[in-house]
Amino acid sequence: APYPTMNHQRQQKHYGITSPISLACPKEIDHIYTQKLIDAMKPFGVFEDEEELNHRYVIENCKIFYCILFNH
């Protein structure tokens, strides 16, 4: 009897409930539009500054340490 052939296609991992719209790398125009979007959002204060980012990082690490220490 012949052996069954196995199709070894690499499956892409993705996160979330649905699969991504595209797995293609971004084009130059995508980088331009992303930067334009960032520039448009900055005046509204929607991004963390370095201090806020570090504070959140410390808090998250404390939560993890607490859970490990007290087995929660």
UniProtKB/TrEMBL annotation:
Domain Poly(A) polymerase nucleotidyltransferase: 16-59
InterPro entries (UniProt xref): NT_sf (IPR043519), PolA_pol_NTPase (IPR048840)
Domain of life: Eukaryota
Any Pfam family: PAP_NTPase
Protein name per Swiss-Prot or TrEMBL: Poly(A) polymerase nucleotidyltransferase domain-containing protein
